[in-house]
UniProtKB/TrEMBL annotation, chain A:
GO terms for molecular function: transmembrane transporter activity. Keywords: Cell membrane, Membrane, Transmembrane, Transmembrane helix. Residues 21-237 form the MacB-like periplasmic core domain. The keyword rRNA processing does not apply. GO terms for cellular component: plasma membrane. It is found in: Cell membrane. This is Permease. Its main location: membrane. InterPro entries: ABC3_permease_C, MacB_PCD, Macrolide_Exporter_MacB. The lineage of its organism: Bacteria, Bacillati, Actinomycetota, Actinomycetes, Micromonosporales.
TrEMBL record, chain B:
It comes from the Bacteria. The keyword Nucleotide-binding applies. InterPro entries: AAA+_ATPase, ABC_transporter-like_ATP-bd, ABC_transporter-like_CS, ABC_transpr_LolD-like, MacB-like_ATP-bd, P-loop_NTPase. One of its GO terms (molecular function) is transmembrane transporter activity. One of its GO terms (cellular component) is membrane protein complex. Keywords: ATP-binding, Nucleotide-binding, Transport. This is ABC transporter ATP-binding protein. It holds the Pfam family ABC_tran. Residues 5-228 form the ABC transporter domain. CDD domains: ABC_MJ0796_LolCDE_FtsE. The keyword ATP-binding applies.
């Protein structure tokens, strides 16, 4: 029997039982739609995180004590400004080296106050992290060298403390010490769940005095050369290991951070897809069930077709196609719903969703495969029916 | 002339819950091309079993059975299906037409399994419906046709492949006597015109008496095989 004929017969049979076909398909539709939607959400989240990590600035190398790993405990930093100078010599350009010594602190202006992160930094920060100012100016070398009490506010802090006037030129009070606002950053928005506008930059020297420490928490380096970034990291780690025997240091690149985050989000996406896959499986069982019913109902038709010359294979193919048609039409509908759902989620909620071609191809492939897998048993049963017995069936 | 069907000491035993139930115990007969045979006997005599064997729907458990010169026991299921398609036409008491399918498509069904293209299928099916007097009912579905018309469609379907043997199992059993007589006349006319051998299972003595040859069965064996007038 020609395939086209088998398709026609299969689609006729499905049309003859519209309601039943629709309900059977519903299982597959829900399964495929949830696979597409959940994978889209997983992928969208991953893409957004990657964008944000890349948005930190290019060719970044973060130097931290201890090991940067999922689950590693944060280590107390032994790094000092002398180490920063040494790193600057290794890099060959001190302007490419930034530091931070950060602490939460309450910042006051008049009657208003805001609890925020106060970071002690070098004047190199805008270069290394590609930060831009909306108003005023950033810290200078002399601000840092003299520990001048000046501050640059993140957009959120500026709004909180000075909702009705320009912050630049105003006085603020950080942990009891007065600072003068010299600039305000351009708004950055959320990144990895952190409000990046909720921060205050002050000279690292002033911060160390404020916190009573000689330490810096971490060093960031903007590598001059992308190809040799790993080698540069190794040289910096070697230099620091020499200066602080017994302490481990790590120099991690954005790629490495992305790798760790990507692994986590990849697992998350996989788990979501697997959960959705279970519903697809349940849909497949429904298809199998309805096909068995269909074979039983049409036993006499099978007997007749065999009597007039249908081979077991012809009958099997006919029922298999019926199952595949059910699941692939269900699959296409589910794909459409999944894509629609993903677009809706992306449009009306903060959850990012990115539909990927591979998830569509996978969902459709799996639904067609479900049709084959769950259609084979009923189809074989139909194909093997004894024509004499089948013709006698009621 | 070679026999359309030749059976030598054919037996068929069913296994029912581990018990062997013999339905046929050594039947020998030959159906020649153009024959007109009535197969008679009480229910349980084995005539339906014999009919299924002669049509290649079943295989004997003993003896030798050749349809169109081909040994049935040696054929695989697909080969047997092909043999049925090419040499046998079936007409059933209950018509067995596909519902929701037009008369012309019902008649064309056997040609589907022969691999004939859609257009040619329809032409041949329409021509065959013309021969059984239903040229004006091509697009009608079974539920729009009377019982007699449905059986004519079934007869057209049996003959559309141009078989050598037409096996009819109580073809008039579900019809009133006038309609049944018309169907019987049609079968006889086709038998005379096209030379297709007609083997008819029947309870009806009036029907049986019209056949040129009568084979009577009882308890799985042939008890008489006589030509009309002899």
């Amino acid at each position: 029997m020609r395939l086209a004929e088998a398709w026609r017969v299969a689609s006729d049979a499905l049309r003859a039982n519209r309601m039943r076909s629709l309900l059977t398909m519903l299982g597959v539709i829900i399964g495929v739609a949830s696979v597409v939607l959940l994978v889209a959400i997983g992928t969208g989240t991953k893409q957004k995180v990657e964008q944000q990590v890349e948005g930190l600035g290019s060719n970044l190398l973060l130097v931290v004590p201890g090991r940067l790993d999922v689950g590693a405990a944060p280590a107390v930093s032994p790094l000092t400004l002398q180490d920063v100078d040494a790193v600057g010599r290794v890099v060959g350009d001190p302007a490419r080296v930034a530091v931070t010594v950060a602490s939460g602190a309450t910042v006051r202006a008049g009657t208003r106050q805001d609890f925020t992160t106060v970071q002690g930094v070098l004047e190199t920060t805008p270069t290394v992290f590609a930060r831009e100012l909306a108003r005023g100016r950033y810290l200078t070398r002399s601000d840092v060298d003299t520990g001048r009490r000046v501050a640059v506010l993140g957009d959120a802090v500026a709004r909180a403390l000075f909702p009705d006037r320009d912050a630049v030129g105003q006085q603020i009070n950080v942990a009891g010490v007065r600072f003068r606002v010299i600039g305000v950053f351009v708004q950055l928005g959320q990144s990895l769940g952190v409000d990046r506008d909720d921060e205050v930059h002050i000279p690292v020297t002033a911060a160390q005095r404020l916190y009573g420490t000689q330490r810096v928490d971490a060093i960031a380096v903007k590598a001059p050369d992308r190809e040799r970034i790993d080698e540069l990291g190794a040289r910096i780690v070697a230099e620091l290991n020499g200066r602080h025997p017994g302490t481990e240091f790590s120099a991690v690149t954005q790629e490495q951070i992305l790798g760790v985050l990507g692994d986590i989000l990849g697992i998350l996406t996989g788990v979501l897809a697997a959960i959705a896959g279970i519903s697809l499986l349940v849909g497949g069982v429904g298809v199998s069930n309805i096909m068995l019913v269909s074979v039983r109902e049409r036993t006499r038709e099978i007997g007749l077709r065999k009597a007039v010359g249908a081979r077991p294979r012809d009958i099997g193919v006919q029922f298999l196609l019926e199952a595949v048609l059910l699941t692939s039409v269900g699959g296409l509908t589910g794909m459409a719903l999944g894509v629609g759902g993903a677009l809706l989620v992306a449009a009306v909620s903060p959850i990012p969703a990115a539909v990927t071609w591979w998830s569509l191809a996978l969902a459709f492939g799996v639904s067609a495969a479900v049709g084959i897998v769950f259609g084979v048993v009923p189809a074989q049963r139909a194909g093997r029916l004894d024509p004499v017995v089948a013709l006698r069936a009621e | 002339m070679t026999a359309a069907i030749e059976a030598v000491e054919v037996s068929r035993t069913y296994q029912l819950d581990g018990v062997s139930v013999p339905a046929l115990r050594g039947v020998s007969l030959t159906i020649a091309a153009g024959d007109y045979v009535a197969l008679i006997g009480p229910s349980g005599s084995g005539k339906s079993t014999l009919m299924h064997l002669l049509g290649g729907l079943d295989r004997p458990t003993g003896g030798r059975l050749a349809i169109g010169g081909r040994e049935v026991g040696a054929l695989s299921a697909p080969e047997l299906a092909r043999l049925r398609n090419e040499t046998i036409g079936f007409v059933f008491q209950a018509f067995h037409l596909l519902p929701r399918t037009s008369a012309v498509d019902n008649v064309a069904l056997p040609l589907v399994y022969r691999g004939v293209g859609a257009r040619q299928r329809r032409e041949r099916a329409a021509a065959m419906l013309g021969r059984v007097g239903l040229g004006h009912r091509l697009g009608h579905r079974p539920n729009q046709l009377s019982g007699g018309e449905q059986q004519r469609v079934a007869i057209a379907r049996a003959l559309v492949t141009d078989p050598t043997v037409l096996l009819a199992d109580e073809p008039t059993g579900n019809l009133d006597s006038a309609t049944g007589a018309a169907v019987l006349e049609l079968l006889e006319r086709l038998n005379a015109e096209s030379g297709v051998a007609l083997v008819m299972v029947t309870h009806d003595a009036e029907v049986a008496v019209r056949a040129r040859r009568r084979i009577a069965m009882r308890d799985g064996v042939v008890v008489s095989d006589s030509e009309a007038g002899s």
